[in-house]
Amino acid sequence: MKPVLGLVILALVALPHAATAEPAPAAAADASGRAHFQRGQRLSAAGDHAAAYREYAAGYALTERPLFLFNMGESARASGDNAKAREAYLAFLRVDPDNALANTARQRIYDLDRASPVVAPPPPPAPPPSVVVTTPPPAPIARAPEGQPIYKKWPFWAVVVGGAVAGGAIVFAVTRPGDACGARCTELDFR
After folding, report:
1. Among 98, 97, 43, 95, which residue's Cα sits nearest to residue 74?
2. Contacts of 62 (CB under 8 A, 6+ apart)
3. CA distance linking residue 158 with residue 96, whole number of Å
4. In a domain, 86, yes or no
5. Domains in the chain: how many in total?
6. What's the pLDDT tens digit per position in 123-158?
7. Which of 42, 67, 91, 186 has the smallest number of Cβ neighbours within 10 A?
């Protein structure tokens, strides 16, 4: 029973230390974030908006407070980097869409889009044409469409009619009498 009592006492003694150990890094991050925020404000007031943007970004990386994103958007917009400003405002709205500055961020995005619409980058240039000598593919063999019976195709009937005419002419030529021409024919002399 004594070892259990010792563990309980140890836990009770360690508990206050563990509870105070957590807030110390958060408090340090908040203090550092506040310092980045104040430097960002001073740089922005001095007109160095690019440096202010970097300070606000560093503060957001430490604290993840949404207002840093809004300030990053304001600094980027003031420095003329509309793409960065738009990204920061959109990130702000994703993180805190109900913030009091959300409507301002939406209006800023609208204004940025009207001032310089987002344009897709041009496609990369086409590679120069290379000379390739190829032989043309062989001509396709004419084939009847699949699924249609042969008697419904015109080549079949052309052969049938041609054969019937040729056969009739042959039968006529073989069976006609020797003087079939009659009085209206002129005999040709091939001597």
Report:
1. 43
2. 29, 32, 33, 36
3. 80
4. yes
5. 1
6. 788 777 776 667 777 777 766 556 777 777 888 888
7. 186
